[in-house]
What we know:
The complex is a heterodimer of chains A (298) and B (329).
Chain A: E1 2-13, E2 19-31, E3 36-41, H1 47-54, E4 62-67, E5 70-71, H2 77-86, E6 87-90, H3 94-97, H4 106-115, H5 121-134, H6 139-142, H7 152-165, E7 170-174, H8 182-197, E8 201-206, H9 209-215, E9 218-223, E10 226-232, H10 233-238, H11 243-251, H12 263-274, E11 286-290, E12 293-296
Helix pairs in contact in A: 5-7, 11-12
Chain B: E1 3-14, E2 17-29, E3 34-38, H1 45-51, E4 59-68, E5 71-72, H2 78-81, E6 89-92, H3 96-99, H4 106-116, H5 121-134, H6 151-162, E7 169-173, H7 181-196, E8 202-206, H8 210-216, E9 219-224, E10 227-233, H9 234-239, H10 244-251, E11 302-304, E12 307-309, H11 322-328
Parallel strand pairs in B: 3-8, 3-9, 6-7, 7-8
Antiparallel strand pairs in B: 1-2, 1-4, 4-5, 9-10, 10-12, 11-12
Helix pairs in contact in B: 6-7, 10-11
Amino acid sequence: xxxxxxxxxxxxxxxxxxxxxxxxxxxxxxxxxxxxxxxxxxxxxxxxxxxxxxxxxxxxxxxxxxxxxxxxxxxxxxxxxxxxxxxxxxxxxxxxxxxxxxxxxxxxxxxxxxxxxxxxxxxxxxxxxxxxxxxxxxxxxxxxxxxxxxxxxxxxxxxxxxxxxxxxxxxxxxxxxxxxxxxxxxxxxxxxxxxxxxxxxxxxxxxxxxxxxxxxxxxxxxxxxxxxxxxxxxxxxxxxxxxxxxxxxxxxxxxxxxxxxxxxxxxxxxxxxxxxxxxxxxxxxxxxxxxxxxxxxx
Amino acid sequence: xxxxxxxxxxxxxxxxxxxxxxxxxxxxxxxxxxxxxxxxxxxxxxxxxxxxxxxxxxxxxxxxxxxxxxxxxxxxxxxxxxxxxxxxxxxxxxxxxxxxxxxxxxxxxxxxxxxxxxxxxxxxxxxxxxxxxxxxxxxxxxxxxxxxxxxxxxxxxxxxxxxxxxxxxxxxxxxxxxxxxxxxxxxxxxxxxxxxxxxxxxxxxxxxxxxxxxxxxxxxxxxxxxxxxxxxxxxxxxxxxxxxxxxxxxxxxxxxxxxxxxxxxxxxxxxxxxxxxxxxxxxxxxxxxxxxxxxxxxxxxxxxxxxxxxxxxxxxxxxxxxxxxxxxx
Lengths: 298, 329
């Protein structure tokens, strides 16, 4: 189990880091194997910061992140390598995740050299083929190609295949489909559901409520670095309690139902509410409104 | 008839040859109409939007006519187009940040811009403040630098500037894509508001997000690989799409309420053809579940009852349930 306990992250901003920005404030939740947890929030809500802390790309200012009883900030050398064997992530822009002057399948060679130096070339190639198979890619289409010769969807799936070569148990997907076209994004999303059914725990980070609703078991709505509402996805989407969540849901464009026409004024009120809470104040307390559904005091 | 585009062709010059990004496109936009332009990346939708106002260095005008309010736009002549830009045709670009000069305060930038167009800054000052207030911004933003505004505020400032001279045609290129949902709603509704108040006569909204188009557009035009696929009123294209591409595209949209556990959606296999050397016949053929031998011929653009479509195997006007098509795969 991957567990975050009272995690906060404060960035130093401005000249010489004189002022502080509380990007994440007192967040606690966990990701179980075989569960998709989506972190939904607008820009500046701290959702990507949480993902980066889980991947140990950033260090929490306070609080702890625990993976299977090990506090990850204490991991060093072999233990850290072992952690990355189990926890991997993929980010938003597939084109900047690759080095453009090398062929895209170099990412597999790097995993081979780094983690499995004793595995022979033939067996390794077979493993790569299996991994490609499970992300629904045809090896002939993607191997020995340069990144610019592949589509965004193919590149994202290659990165997922790379993670699968390791014995991953938790997967951080940070906006992995927002750069993809409508016709391919749903396939990458279905791939995540497939990983989930194999027992992986997935942290799905998105700004798109409909995507979060489609895939996740647990939904966490973030605003200004703290949780405003969290719980089982049906409950959060079906019976939203916090005014911010309700406003967000009312702003989502749907293809069968028009927005309530309240002029630009109403929508501006939403935007104002989104920017309303002053960063730096303490995170609001969460209350249990029903079994498996927590809401922040508003 | 506000805008009439006929057989417009714009290619990109590359070392490997011409990329036929816009390959024979004809359509009309009526006065007071908001037309949505949808399609995947690389389908030519942004090329069309840019082509109507300014061809950049890599783009080459190949053929076709654009007539705005009875006057032909000289889109092949960069200098002659200057008489039309901003006054008659205006654009709101995707990244508002890069549209605003970071070294000038907003107010000063607007005055400089108006002077280059021969309009007096003082004459429109009152109107400018009135319109800023309409989009929820006070006159004090004129004294701020662009960096002091949030993304949504910048986008709205650019919208006000672009429409200040009441252009006949406004092109909005992916203006909501980089915004959060709540800001997205405010910006999209501003487009409708501007049309309703007559600041612009007609609008072309370009986006890959069909859900946003459904909210604001009167008609939706779907493009595929440099050609038109289907055009219909917004409600009809969502409720009864006829072109197989449109149908698959709309059935692949996850909506709030659809869960993977209950209903698995599917994307469209394959990818669009290269426009360097596009295939003959229907360009969607390789990905289309309904393709037959007839699709080796290029389907003609057929228009009736306000709906246009280019497909041999199009669904009848009263459509079969989209699920039939999904099962056929």
